[in-house]
Amino acid sequence: MDILQRNNVRVSGKGSQAIVFAHGYGCDQAMWRKVSPSFEDNFKVILFDYVGAGQSDLDSYDPDRYSSLSGYAQDIIEICEALDLSKVILVGHSVSSMICLLAASKIPQRIAQLIMVCPSPRYLNDPPDYIGGFEAADIEGLLDMISRNQPGWANYLAGVVAKNPDQPALAQELEASFCAMDPPIAKRFAEATFLADNRADLKNLDKPCLLLQCQHDSVAPLEVGEYLSKHLSQSTLVQMKATGHCPHMSHPKETIELITQFLENTNNPPILS
């Protein structure tokens, strides 16, 4: 099997060290288009689509494999192995933050740092000690809507995720991306995402990790960032000025600047002149 073709892998950039950008739920690699080019002068930039998303090979989709986040982590592992990457910087948006963590714990010898954009280890509230942002009824309703009304759930979730009313094109792009997913794949990925509990996996990461958290993020609220900061041993939590859940799309300049600062502080070559 050609892994690079399966995951629609795109390699660019002039550098030797790889930075891999992993997209979030219901999205594809195009969502990084405002951020990834800024790293091409000094890094090897890797973009890809998870199997079942974007321009990936749908014939390679395995319902059993992709019923949990570990199956998506295997995509990242196989891409890193196919390209024989080392000292990799993994950048994950939303659920891909935990997918990248799972991948890093399996191939620690290949990974240098993680950058988590709007991460969450658990979307469901678990009172009294953990606030994830969603009640079980919220998730059940969303999953039910995916089965019954794809345009309806896409519109609803895009509104929750975007949270930038001054940028209506953002919600429109997210809605179109959600609608483009095959409904059974969309539901299975949603179940794997919103029902996951990766809190116990946090102890397995011993790499420098940047946590980027937005204002007014309904998907990953403030308490989630604080929880991750406490439980990831080498983490740096930064509260962004950006709002919503997709700062790489809504506030790319700030996103680039914060990633740049973190990488420079962890002894990587400078990114921007």
Short description:
The protein has 273 residues and is of the alpha/beta class. It is built from 10 helices and 7 strands. The protein has a domain at 3-121 and 198-265: Alpha/Beta hydrolase fold, catalytic domain (Rossmann fold, 3-Layer(aba) Sandwich), CATH 3.40.50.
Q: What structural keywords apply?
A:
273 residues; globular; 15% strand; alpha/beta; 7 strands; Rossmann fold
Mean pLDDT figure: 94
The helix/strand series, from N terminus to C terminus, equals HEEEHEHEHHHHEHEHH
In the predicted model, the low-confidence regions spanning at least 5 consecutive residues are 268-273
Could you give the order of strands across the largest sheet? 1-3-2-4-5-6-7
Distance between the termini: 40 Å
Share of helix among residues?
25-40%
Number of helices: 10
Please tell me the CATH architecture of one domain by its name.
3-Layer(aba) Sandwich
- The fraction of residues assigned to DSSP E strands is 15-25%
CATH level 1 class label of one domain: Alpha Beta
> Can you summarize the main beta sheet?
7 strands, mixed
At the fold tier of CATH, the topology name of one domain is Rossmann fold
Shape: globular
How many E strands? Answer: 7
Structural class: alpha/beta
In the CATH hierarchy, what is the superfamily of one domain? Alpha/Beta hydrolase fold, catalytic domain
* Radius of gyration from the alpha-carbon trace, in angstroms: 17 Å
Outline the secondary-structure elements.
Layout lengths: L2 H4 L3 E3 L5 E5 L21 E4 L21 H14 L5 E6 L1 H12 L4 E7 L18 H13 L1 H13 L5 H13 L2 H12 L14 E7 L6 H10 L3 E9 L3 H4 L1 H14 L8
Parallel strand pairs: 2-3, 2-4, 4-5, 5-6, 6-7
Antiparallel strand pairs: 1-3
